[in-house]
From TrEMBL:
PROSITE patterns: CYTB_NTER (PS51002)
Reactions catalysed according to its record: a quinol + 2 Fe(III)-[cytochrome c](out) = a quinone + 2 Fe(II)-[cytochrome c](out) + 2 H(+)(out)
Membrane-spanning parts: 48-73, 118-137, 149-169, 181-203, 215-240, 261-282, 334-356, 385-409, 415-434
Main location: membrane
Keywords, in A-Z order: Cell membrane, Electron transport, Heme, Iron, Membrane, Metal-binding, Respiratory chain, Translocase, Transmembrane, Transmembrane helix, Transport
Annotated protein name in UniProt: Cytochrome bc1 complex cytochrome b subunit
Species of the source: Streptomyces ferrugineus
């Protein structure tokens, strides 16, 4: 009895303290009053979690990154290794490479945190990519969210740069090869290429400046920009309200979902721990970037089968696909084979991404505000373009591993390169046509469902020998949803010109 009374009193005290804290915060911050944060409605759908996965892997990146700065030395000063990884004992290397070996073998828990940082980067970029695709295919970039789309594309660009800068820091043979490619790309820029390269590397490649410079970018400038832009991005999601899928009671003028506190905060907090848990598990069991196996960087050495992290793979692929085209003008060589795939192509990719919402608005003339998500099938051209772009990207990514694929399947690397070149031109066209057709077919099937009901798969044979299938009428919710996407049932359909004539 006594313990029950004590527990009740402790519960009352805790409730009282929670109320006082809430009142305190409420009196000072715009939390629960009209339109306040606590009651913000957050629509519920799995695809809205993709942005959150990006957010939470970014948090893991920041936490593990801060830890790594305690042990990493961003210096290219030459040292002789005497750490506990004996195969490299007595080898000359940069202090940056040595400190990364130390983190991996001599700092307690170091390898786990290094791996978590690297895995979080891989997942961060993947999550950004699929988040971008969900925004694209559901038309969530349309008015009034164009600015958030532009911020998103910038975040994507910064995340790529941040990943590349971090990947280059350990100064191992693989990352040094990546930097050598980056220098080649700089040199391919007409007129100013040599100056750009000298400026970036502080002189001849590789020099002694690049690692400390990349370090400043990687731990200060780029994360600062990312953090600031993610904050603005999320403020805009709150301010403009989240898009939602059509359904009863969900219109272009409201947002229906879980309140921010406690439901959304609890489920989103759960997602954070899941992301953290999965990244920790992956880092515990799946090796990534074993720099000790590559050795320290030397400008005159390159290992076979060198592969960048997956998000740079499309650039590697585009470089491998372009034939050795060069033109010499007044004694200066124009390296089309590097300029086109590594400067022009990414430039075009990002220009298209930045321009897309405005280009679509210009072509369709749609200037309305949209808060309901589109279904990809209802916009066959947009969906077709998206799938065509994914197929282009897929070809480039696969081409980035042409040597590995050729080796694994014992096929000619030259023949495979030609297959990729042709696929790069043909596959997007095919993908566009097939996707547009599939979208139209799916929409027609929806129309049929609305007018004739759902197929039951049950056949009836009539006495006259004919067959008919039994259809079940759709439930009210599904009829409502299909009507929201502009489909009309038999009774509501405008009569066609032929029907009117009859
Ligand atoms: C650092 C990278 C990014 C983070 C952490 C992030 C985070 C988020 C989060 C948490 C949301 C709300 C939930 C959701 O709709 O998924 C969101 C919404 C949104 N994001 Fe991102 N995002 C990032 C990159 C991008 C990119 C690359 C784009 C597109 C180019 C983009 C465009 C948008 C738009 C337009 C919305 C509003 C969606 C709506 O209201 O339905 N974001 N973002």
């Amino acid at each position: 009895m006594l313990w029950r009374r004590r527990r009740a009193r402790a519960g009352a005290r805790a409730r009282h303290a929670a109320e006082r804290t809430t009142d305190y915060i409420d009196g000072r911050l715009p939390l629960s009053e009209g339109g306040g944060l606590l009651r913000k409605a957050f629509p519920d759908h799995w695809s809205f979690l993709l942005g959150e996965i990006a957010l939470y892997s970014f948090v893991v990146l920041l936490l593990t990154g801060v830890w790594l700065t305690l042990f990493f030395h961003p210096s290219m000063t030459e040292v002789v290794y005497h750490g506990s990884y004996t195969p490299l004992a007595g080898v000359r290397m940069s202090a940056a490479y040595e400190s990364t070996l130390d983190i991996s073998f001599d700092v307690r828990g170091g390898l786990l945190i290094r791996q978590m940082h690297h895995w979080a980067a891989l997942v961060f970029l993947a999550a950004i990519g699929v988040h971008l695709l969900r925004i694209f295919f559901t038309g969530a970039f349309r008015r009034p969210r164009e600015v958030n789309w532009l911020i998103g594309v910038t975040l994507f660009l910064l995340a790529l740069a941040e990943g590349f800068a971090g990947y280059s820091l350990p100064d191992d043979l693989l990352s040094g090869t990546g930097l050598r490619i980056a220098q080649g790309i700089m040199l391919s820029i007409p007129v100013v290429g040599t100056y750009v390269s000298f400026f970036a590397f502080g002189g001849e490649f590789p020099g002694e400046e690049i690692i400390p410079r990349l370090y400043a970018l990687h731990i200060l400038l780029l994360p600062g920009l990312l953090l600031a832009l993610v904050t603005v991005h999320l403020i805009l999601v709150f301010y403009l309200k989240h898009t939602q899928w059509a359904g009863r009671g969900r219109t272009e003028r409201n947002a229906v979902g879980k309140p921010m506190v406690p439901q959304f905060a609890a489920s989103s907090g759960g997602l954070f721990f899941m992301v953290f848990g999965v990244l920790t598990l992956l880092s515990g069991v799946a090796q990534t970037n074993p720099i000790w196996a590559y050795g320290p960087y030397r400008a005159d050495v390159v290992s076979t089968g060198s592969q960048p992290d997956w998000y740079v793979g499309f650039l590697e692929g585009s470089l491998r696909l372009v034939p050795p085209w060069e033109t010499t003008v007044a004694g200066h060589t124009l390296m089309w084979n590097v300029l086109l795939p590594a400067v022009v192509l990414p430039g075009v990719l990002f220009a298209v991404l930045y321009a897309y919402p405005f280009a679509e608005r210009w072509v369709t003339g749609d200037r309305e505000e949209h808060h309901l998500c589109d279904r990809p099938r209802d916009h066959p051209v947009r969906t077709g373009l998206g799938v065509a772009a994914i197929s282009c990207y897929g070809v480039l990514l696969a081409a980035g591993g042409n040597d590995i694929i050729a080796y694994a399947f014992s096929i000619s690397v030259n023949a495979l390169t030609w297959v990729f070149r042709i696929s790069f031109l043909v596959l997007p066209l095919l993908a566009f046509m097939v996707t547009r057709r599939v979208c139209r077919a799916l929409r027609e099937a929806d129309q049929e469902r609305l007018t004739e009901g759902e197929e039951t798969g049950e056949l009836r044979q009539t006495l006259a020998g004919g067959y008919e299938e039994r259809h079940e009428p759709l439930d009210e919710e599904r009829r409502y949803v299909l009507r929201s996407y502009g489909l009309r049932g038999e009774e509501e359909r405008e009569p066609s010109a032929e029907e009117l004539e009859r």
